[in-house]
Amino acid sequence: MIDKKILQALLKKVETPFYVYDAQIIRENCSKLKNAFSKYYPDTEIHYAVKANNCPEVLRIIKNAGLGVDCSSPFELLISQKTGFKRSAIMYTGNYESPEDLDFALKYAGLINLDDISSFYRIKDLSLPEIVSFRINPGIGKGGFEGITTGGVDAKFGIPYEKALEAYKTAFRSGARRFGIHMMTGSNNLEPLYFAETTDKLMHIAGSIFSSLGVTPEYIDIGGGFGIPYTDDEVPLDIERTAELVCERFKANCSKFKFGNPVLRIEPGRYITGNAGVLVTKVTGKKESYRNYTGVDAGMNTLIRPALYNAFHRMETPFKKRTGHLKTDVCGRICENSDIFCRNIPLPLLDEGDIIVFRDSGAYGSTMSSNYNGRPRPGEIVTDSGKIIYLKERERLEKMVALHYEQDEQKP
Ligand code: LLP
Question: What is the CA(269)–ligand 1 centre distance, in A?
Fold first, then answer.
């Protein structure tokens, strides 16, 4: 929970809604992952998935913690480079990559995971990457919601594993001699065994590909997907046990297939920033209709996860005690009936202007926000040991309007 004093100070300085990230928690999450994996396999490299949270200060903290990045667009590549990540620490994993995407990837990323054989043909026309790595769909996948399950027969990502050998053979025939392999099968998983089983599956796929090619892979990337609890009932992912199980299978398969010591790569997003952030909102209106509604100044334009996946974010009312409560739906101001954060939740009796804080909003919060209904994107603040170290205000209406009409001046 965000410190009340900092929150009070922020509310005097910044207009709601805004996200607040805690630098100490981000650093702790980085260390937990690093320590767990390097204990069981020292050649592990961690690439933070920039799509989870791309706040400049957050990227700086992650860089200083010694992690690399995984990018999914030219914009993410550019900001990673601007943050100071070395080319060798920047990875690119896209899907249905355009020639423009691939051109950016070749320029800024030291490592590229290609989504398909057709991506290989497109990149080859530009230049052959130093290492050829394909994203494989191992035929299995699991995620917190259907929309975030990224492996298995209904997933749009990667090469079906049955076709993977052909892709690598094509790359080999085109002159590629250095290889990696990649998968990302789902997000927000909380069971250690899931990671071990999918790793095992990918290693077997890798085993048959690389032994038939007569080469060894330089890296094996098992993706991200390390989950966090969003409710009081969910058990946090045991990261130490996850690392132990994954590395056990990884090492056993490395010796079985005579891979030597390839780099084990992981791409966590949510695990690093999810529980380090909150969204601070203000009550703008209350209504007694067929149901009770409490409207706040954030909505699906600010935090889309509830509307998109039916995700739940715990709410807190730091300045109102839980005496006398009301069951209410909490909603935003967007003109869609899916703009509901939660139905029928007991909250203290709130007045207009009261604060509601949404927990665990540090991943896929701000990065998925939009200007829908012409609403400004939220502010972002980073605190470190009680101090504000980064402050970006909510988007300004005048700027939005100016940008909207910028094009008019260039009319043919
Ligand atoms: N690597 C790749 C290639 C990915 O596509 C993703 C996430 C990650 C790594 C990081 O996954 P994580 O460790 O954060 O699970 N918007 C959804 C999550 C979508 C995840 C998409 N890919 C949400 O709000 O839950």
Answer: 6
Which residues, judged by CB distance below 6 Å to any ligand atom, belong to the binding site of ligand 1? 49, 52, 70, 93, 148, 184, 187-188, 223-226, 267-271, 305, 363-364
180-230, pLDDT tens digit by residue? 999 999 999 999 999 999 999 999 999 999 999 999 999 999 999 999 999
348-381 burial by CB neighbour count: b if 16+ within 10 A, else e?
A: eebeeebbbbbbbbbbbbbebbeebeebbbbbbb
CA of 224 from ligand 1 middle (Å) equals: 7
Q: Residue 265 in 3-state DSSP?
A: strand
To the query of whether residue 335 is one of the catalytic residues in this protein, the response is yes
Q: Which of 30, 247, 331, 335 is catalytic?
A: 335
Helix ranges (DSSP H) in 85-160: 99-108, 117-126
Q: How many residues does the chain have?
A: 412
Domain 4-19+275-396 has CATH 2.40.128.280: no
pLDDT digits (tens, 9 = 90+) for 16-53: 999 999 999 999 999 999 999 999 999 999 999 999 99
What is the third-level CATH fold of 23-274? TIM Barrel (3.20.20)
Helix (H) or strand (E) holding 134: strand 132-137
CB 242 within 8 A of CB 248: no
Q: What is the pLDDT of residues 43-94, one digit of tens each?
A: 999 999 999 999 999 999 999 999 999 999 999 999 999 999 999 999 999 9
Closest ligand 1 atom to Cα of 271: 13
Determine the distance separating the centroid of ligand 1 and the alpha carbon of 51, expressed in angstroms.
7
Out of 70, 148, 150, 187, give the residue to mutate to test ligand 1, the one with the largest number of ligand atoms within 8 Å of its CB: 187
Ligand 1 midpoint to CA 283 (Å): 31
Domain ranges of the chain: 4-19+275-396, 23-274
